[in-house]
Design goal:
Largest sheet: 5 strands, antiparallel
Shape: globular
Distance between the termini: 15 Å
Structural class: alpha+beta
CATH topology: Alpha-Beta Plaits
Number of domains: 1
Number of strands: 5
Strand content: 25-35%
Length: 93
C-alpha cells in the first residue's frame, strides 16, 4: 500500500480533482482512493500487487505529481508538497 498526504490550494481544488479523476491506474496498481480529511487536505491510498510494483511505478507517479505541483501548498520545507509513505499490509479485515 502507499499513502500520500497533500494540501490543495483552495483556488486549485477543481483542477486538482479533475486531474486525479482522469489519471489512469499505474501498472501493478489495484486501486487508488482519494480521501478529503479536512478542507483541501487529501490522502491518496493506493493498493498494489507488490512493493516492487510501487517502486517501478514511482517515476511515473512523480511525473504525474509534476503536473499537479502548482495546485498544491507546501506542507513543510522538509517534505515539500507531499508526505508519502508505503509499506506492507499487516492486518486486513
Amino acid at each position: 500500500m502507499n499513502i500520500v498526504r497533500c494540501k490543495v490550494k483552495s483556488s486549485n481544488k477543481d483542477e486538482y480533482l479533475k486531474k486525479i479523476k482522469e489519471m489512469p491506474k499505474f501498472d501493478g496498481q489495484i486501486s487508488a482512493k482519494y480521501v478529503e480529511t479536512k478542507p483541501n487536505e487529501f490522502f491518496m491510498i493506493g493498493e498494489w500487487n507488490s512493493e516492487d510494483d510501487i517502486a517501478k511505478a514511482r517515476p511515473k507517479m512523480i511525473g504525474f505529481l509534476d503536473t499537479l505541483r502548482h495546485t498544491l501548498d507546501e506542507l513543510s520545507p522538509e517534505l515539500g508538497v507531499t508526505d508519502p509513505h508505503s509499506g506492507t499490509v499487516v492486518v486486513e479485515k
